[in-house]
Amino acid sequence: MESVERFIYVVDGNKVTVKVVRTFRLCFKIGLFLDLLETFHILSFRRNLVSVSHLDKSDYHCSFGNNKVGLFQNSNVICSGF
Asked: Which of 3, 18, 53, 75 is the residue whose CA sits 20 to 30 A from 39?
């Protein structure tokens, strides 16, 4: 099977290569975790991105306002930040 290069375009128009990670476990300080499936890791980024639309399809709810963000599942707070 031939390997296919995966990439995204960043804000300055440059093409950046991404690495496919099948499952990435995102661990929260409160002891909960979130398994992100079919994940891309951007090696050149200091911090990576999580797709809000993908979280929505996985029955999570994101709330944005007052310079804060919250992630919920079944009305339970999973994490929050600024």
From this structure: 75
Enumerate residues 6+ apart whose C-beta is below 8 A from 46. none
Closest Cα to residue 18, out of 62, 56, 51? Answer: 51
Split into its structural domains, the chain has a count of 2
Helices (H), 1-82: 52-57
Task: Name which of 58, 4, 50 is nearest 28 in CA terms.
Answer: 50
CA 55 to chain centre: 8
What domain range includes position 30?
1-43
Same domain, 4 and 27: yes
Q: How far apart are CA 29 and CA 42, in angstroms?
A: 23
